[in-house]
Every structure is written in C-alpha cells, then in structure tokens.
Design a protein that fits this description.
433 residues; Rossmann fold; 13 helices; 35% helix; globular; disordered C terminus
C-alpha cells in the first residue's frame, strides 16, 4: 500500500506463518452448516487482504512516473470525466446513414426517366405534380461549416488555437478553460431537415439555426429543442440547416463564420448538398435564390452577428430571430436592421439579456426605427419586435418555450400570415377594389 511503513521481516514472517497454519487447520474440516461457511469466509477475507499487502509496495520506477504525471497534468486531465460521448451516439439515438438515392423522388411503375431540365427560378411547378418524397432529417459533412477553424480570433487578431501541448492544439475560452481542437472544434456536420412537402420551386424559406453553448446536433437541436419538428409543424414551405458549433462546450466561437463571405460560402455549399440529397441537380439554382431566416439562440448570437456583418449575402436574409441571445455585438445587429428595412427582426429575452436588449432598443430608436413589443401581429417586412418573457420561462428551455410554445414555429406562421396578407392586398389593388 503506497505510503505504508514497512514492518520488520521477523515480525511479518511469524505472523504470516501463524495465520497460514490456522488457515490450513480450518481447511481440513469442511463446514457443515451455512453459519460455519460464513464464519470461515469472514476469517479468510482479512487474511487474504493482509497477504496481498505484504511485499506489494510500488516500485521506485512507478513512484517516479506518478510524480512526473502530477508535475505536468491536473487531476482532471489525468482522469477526465466522460465527455463528448454524444458525438458518437448509440444505435438507438443516432440518425441512420442512408444512401443519397433514398432521398430522391421515388420512381413509379413503368415510368420513363424524366428528361433533364433546368429549373425555373419562378414557382411554376405545382407541388402535386412532383414525385412523392419522404421527410428527410440527416447529418451532412460540409467543409464550409464553422469548424475545424485554423484562422484568427477577430476579437484579438491572434490565432484562434492559441494553446499547444505536444501534438494537441486548443483554444482558451473567455472563462479561462481550455478546449481542445480534436474534441471541441473538429465537427463539420450540419443537421439538414427537409419536410415531406417542401418544394424548392415554390416561395419558401431556409431557416439557419445557430445553437447555443453546451449543445450537440442530435441530443439538443434535434431531440430536445425539436427544431426539425417545429419546421414541419409550421406548415410553411421551409427547411432547416443547423451547423455544429463548439461541441458540448461553454464557448460561442463562430469559426469560419467569422471570415468575410463565410456565410455566403456555407449557403453555396448547402445548395450543392441539397441538390444531391433530393436527387435533382437543377434544384441547386432555386435553392441559391431562396430567402433565409437566421435563428440564433443564446451563444449563437456570435455567428449570427458576423453572418449579418461580413457574411456576404445580407440581401438574402429576410429575417433574424434572437432567442435570449443579445449578449453583445449590438452595433452589428443595429446596422443590419437599419440597412435592411425589408427584413424583420425579433429579439425575445429573459432577465439574463434584458439590459442588452434595452440598449439595442435605444440604439434603434435613436436611428428613428419604430419598435413593437409583443408577438401578437403578423411579421411584416420591416417589423422590429422585442418580447420580454416572464420569470417562469427558463433560458435552457427557451427554444421550445419563450413567449409561446415552439417559438420558431410561431415565427414562421406569422411570417407566412404577413406574406399572405401582402399578396391579398396586392391582388385587390390590381383589380381596382
């Protein structure tokens, strides 16, 4: 036993010999009752432990190795708690890997192959004429996703991976904790959800969701926050893209979305992936023109802000929704709102972000931009809405319970209501009513 005081050899040998003789005597007769067997077990167990301890002190080499580990590594590094296991979920939890052909249009009996045709960018093909297709929820690796990222941190203009230990590289977060690149910043997957009735040729929207801290795509975005279900349940012609940010870590780093045109590259690659998943190469062109709504939750404010500021396609962003997410970058949000008066902006908040939301409201009022407080109206172009939620609403559950249950679904429904009202009004003007 480490640290035990060695005993004299005479004392130890005599005690061991005496106990061994007693044990041999006990073994000559077989216990006849349960009580006798139990008594024998209680006698032999401490004897066995005593015998194990004698002569089992660690070698000098083992002690030296232990001292070397204590000098360089913390206890947490030597004996880390199980982490990131949900990057490799069980068979019952993970999304099934299926060939891309499973997601394309289903062939009908005796049907001739459709001729190749360049899709029009206008909604000319009625959805009922399209071949049936299953709902699609899958993970796609994309080189333009947030990570891996080997550039600079724009906040400091220093390398993002600023910690080196042997062959490992890591990033020290604002809290002072080090997250390693191979564990936290090495997942380039994107959660893609395409509802069964989504038609890229009809007016629709692409929802890009930036998750918060301590999240994974399957455990949190899909299963806990129910983003795919909210998209489908809205009934709106919408699909979902949710890139993995820092894996299960208290870190809001934006990775490649920090870079100029980073969001533009992400959406361009998404169009290519969408065409592969649906089996329709021509759909990439229609996808590349479809408007975007960005939803940023909590720590997702940072990639949202930089996508608006330097992403390269702010003209395609028709709406921004922040779910308890105004932790900073107020100037970037205010500038996008002022420069894009045809897009809508919604920020719903708890007491955690109330001060920043109030500061942003003052900035917008100083620019002469009208503000509404409350989500009781359709989301018309140019709407700027702030919604304060009460004490019973928790930050952790905010994506499923904010001003209403399933707030992302509610945003899409109110956006569609506003577009429908606009089309009705335009039709009435055209007919002179």
């Amino acid at each position: 036993m480490v640290g035990a005081t060695p005993r004299s050899s005479d004392h130890g040998s005599g005690e061991v010999a005496a106990r061994s003789a007693t044990a041999r005597g006990a073994l000559r007769g077989t216990p006849r009752t349960v009580g006798q067997r139990w008594a024998l077990a209680c006698f032999l167990l401490p004897l066995a432990l005593t015998l194990v301890q004698y002569g089992k002190a660690p070698s000098p080499g083992a002690l030296a190795a232990n001292a070397w580990l204590n000098a360089d590594d913390t206890f947490a590094e030597r004996f880390p708690a199980p982490q990131f296991r949900d990057r490799f979920p069980t068979d019952n939890e993970t999304l099934l890997l299926r060939p891309l052909s499973d997601f394309g249009p289903k062939p009908t009996a005796h049907a001739e192959p459709a001729p190749y045709r360049v899709a029009s960018l206008e909604p000319q093909v009625p959805s009922q004429h399209l071949a049936p297709r299953d709902e699609l929820t899958t993970l796609v690796s994309m080189k333009s996703s947030a990570f891996p990222y080997f550039g600079n941190n724009p906040a400091s203009e220093q390398p993002f991976l600023d910690i080196v230990k042997g062959d490992r590289r890591g990033h020290r977060s604002l809290s002072g904790r080090v997250y390693w690149q191979d564990q936290t910043y090495n997942d380039n997957r994107v959660l893609v959800h395409v509802p069964e009735n989504f038609d890229v040729r009809k007016p629709g929207v692409i929802v890009v969701f930036f998750h918060g801290n301590g999240a994974t795509l399957e455990r949190d975005v899909r299963d806990r926050q129910l983003l795919p279900q909210q998209i489908t349940d809205s009934g709106v012609n919408a699909m979902l893209l949710a890139p993995q940010l820092a894996v299960d870590a208290a870190d809001s780093s934006a990775g490649k979305f920090w870079q100029p045109d980073g969001f533009k590259r992400f959406m361009a690659e998404s169009a290519e992936q969408f065409a592969k998943l649906t089996g329709d190469p021509a759909s990439a062109r229609a996808f590349a023109k479809m408007p975007i709504v960005i939803v940023g939750y909590s720590g997702g404010f940072l990639p949202t802000a930089f996508s608006l500021d330097v992403g390269g396609i702010s003209n395609r962003i028709h709406g921004v929704v922040l779910l308890d997410a105004v932790y900073g970058e107020l100037d970037k949000f205010a500038s996008w709102i002022a420069d894009n008066r045809s897009g809508f902006f919604v920020s719903s908040y708890t007491h955690y972000t109330a001060r920043h939301d109030q500061d942003l409201m003052r900035m917008l009022r100083d620019k002469g931009i009208p503000i509404a407080e409350g989500m009781d109206q359709p989301l018309r172009p140019g709407s700027v809405v702030f919604v304060e939620t009460g004490e019973g609403i928790t930050h952790r559950d905010y994506v499923t319970q904010a001003w209403t249950r399933n707030p992302v679904k509610d945003v899409l429904v109110k956006m569609a209501e506003a577009q429908q009202a606009t089309r009705i009004a335009a039709g009435a003007q055209a007919t002179g009513r």
